[in-house]
Design goal:
The complex is a heterodimer of chains A (289) and B (168).
Chain A: E1 7-9, H1 14-24, E2 28-31, H2 37-42, E3 50-53, E4 63-64, E5 68-72, H3 77-82, H4 84-89, H5 91-97, H6 103-108, H7 111-117, H8 123-130, E6 134-139, E7 142-147, H9 148-151, E8 152-154, E9 157-158, E10 165-172, E11 179-185, E12 195-204, E13 207-216, H10 226-232, H11 239-252, H12 263-284
Parallel strand pairs in A: 1-3, 2-3
Antiparallel strand pairs in A: 4-5, 5-10, 6-7, 6-10, 8-9, 11-12, 12-13
Helix pairs in contact in A: 10-11, 11-12
Chain B: E1 6-12, E2 15-21, H1 27-34, E3 53-56, E4 59-62, E5 75-77, H2 91-98, H3 108-121, H4 127-133, H5 145-159
Parallel strand pairs in B: 1-5
Antiparallel strand pairs in B: 1-2, 3-4, 3-5
Classes of the chains: A alpha+beta (289), B alpha+beta (168).
């Protein structure tokens, strides 16, 4: 099937894009990488009468290194995947990127598009909650900053207002000595994940000093299971503590069963991935033995 | 009711071309319909099968997920541009032929473009790397075995700097 007709606009600045959103109202939609939106248009599950392409808004493509990394919303998954600073500083980001579809998808798909689309199974939302992400949003009234745990509202729904543009995603990188891991279960490489876990661990004296978790595909929004984190913080890494953490994740999630995986299957997957990701992150962490 | 068509100018396989398209016309349809470059195929038309894969500004893309108007001013490479001449195949094409890496050939152009980018980035891949990288291109005929062999053969051939157009 082919998309229904629409008017096409290609602004050069964020302000132009906002102005177009105001002009065309409810029937307009921003186009980022198109890897999620265009299939919806092709299958006629969405039919905006105006498409506002952010592809030529160059001010949205950047990556600013730092303890908190700032990523322009139109930066592609592939650019993030290959970024030397992030590869060195926080490998789980690149690991997660390599699981997003296939290279051709990642060459066009963007960080901002993924977050604004808010598929609960997506990798970016899980990374954002695990790394204390902040989203910078610009609209007619100006700029506001939204923390990741407030940004994702429900299935495919964020707190973005119709006339707002997501401009920047900020992630607080873990200390260089931290170990990070991103693990996902999918039937085939590149498929949508049935469950995915991002884990960050800093070690001290053989135990866990600090831990962060982000879980995707198990609820309407990505989860940061703070209960599981509390169990692990200050503890040893053992079968017992891992099992306890996995149980805490199980208690926090509400997966929906479907043709790709039943609720029970997804629950189990989330628990197993939690343990595996934590183990891997622990092994990768440096710090005093 | 047809929307107003826009004029699009871009380079395809090293040549400047122009054409017209409604905003909703995908790049895949534009290549096939307006430029008569029917080597690029339509399989699923929603980004999953890879049959429509082309290179845009050196990067593989799903041409069914890009609108023709978005390709304004870009540099495209399609399967039609791979062979250096009428008499000679690109080493990757030759390898697919030698290794019987195709049957009906419908998925093949998509594979060729994917492999072209892949071997450029990763000239000496392992079998696992090959299978992983090709997972975005679906084939209903071959079972992939000979496709993987073709990629291995192409990699060896191109690494060794063999003259193009070899027949084994």
């Amino acid at each position: 099937m082919k998309p229904a007709p629409f008017e096409y606009f290609s602004p050069r600045t964020v302000d132009e894009a906002i102005s177009l959103l105001q002009q065309h109202g409810d029937e307009s939609k921003l186009l980022a990488g198109g890897q999620s939106l265009v299939p919806l248009l092709a299958l006629r599950l969405a039919g905006p009468s105006a498409l506002i392409d952010l592809g030529r808004v160059d001010e949205l493509r950047y990556l600013r290194e730092g303890e908190t990394v700032a990523i322009g919303s139109m930066t592609t998954h592939r650019q993030i995947e290959k970024d030397p600073y992030l590869l060195g500083r926080c490998p789980m980001i690149s690991e997660a990127m390599s699981l997003v579809g296939h290279v051709a998808i990642r060459n066009r798909g963007t960080v901002g598009g993924s977050c604004a689309h808010a598929d609960p199974a997506a990798e970016w939302p899980a990374l954002a909650v695990a790394l204390d992400g902040e989203f910078e949003v610009k609209g007619p009234a100006g700029v506001r900053t939204v923390p990741a745990n407030e940004f994702f509202f429900s299935y495919f729904t964020t707190i973005l207002e119709p006339e707002e543009v997501l401009t920047e995603i900020r992630l607080k990188l873990p200390p260089p000595s931290a170990g990070t891991a991103f693990m996902e279960l999918a039937r085939r490489h590149g498929d949508f994940g049935l469950a995915a876990v991002a884990a960050v661990i800093t070690r001290r004296n053989g135990g866990i000093e600090d831990v962060r978790l982000g879980v995707a595909g198990v609820a309407a929004v990505p989860l940061r299971p703070s209960e599981a984190e509390s169990i692990l913080r200050g503890s040893e890494l053992s079968d017992q503590t891992l099992d306890a953490a996995a149980e805490a994740v199980d208690a926090a999630i509400q997966p929906t069963g479907d043709i790709h995986g039943s609720e029970d299957f997804r629950r189990n997957a989330a628990k197993v991935l939690t343990k595996r990701a934590l183990r891997r992150a622990f092994e990768r962490a440096g710090g005093s033995a | 009711m047809m929307e107003t068509e826009l004029e699009i100018a871009l380079r395809v396989n090293g040549k400047d071309v122009t054409g017209e398209a409604e905003p909703r016309m995908t790049l895949a349809d534009f290549l096939r319909d307006r430029l008569r470059l029917t080597g690029t195929h339509l399989g699923c038309e929603h980004g999953v099968c890879g049959a429509c894969t082309v290179l845009m500004d050196g990067k593989s893309i799903r041409s069914c997920l890009v609108f023709a108007v978005q390709a304004q001013g870009s540099e495209l490479e399609t399967v039609e541009g791979m062979a250096p001449s009428e008499d000679e195949l690109h080493p990757i094409q030759q390898a697919f032929s030698n290794e019987h890496g195709l049957q009906c050939g419908f998925c093949t152009p998509g594979f060729l473009m994917t492999v072209s980018e892949f071997l450029d980035e990763c000239p000496d891949p392992t079998e696992e790397e090959i299978r992983k990288r090709l997972s975005g291109n679906l084939c209903r005929c071959t079972g992939y075995q000979n496709i993987v062999a073709a990629v291995r053969s192409a990699a060896d051939r191109m690494k060794a700097g063999s003259p193009r157009g070899d027949h084994d």
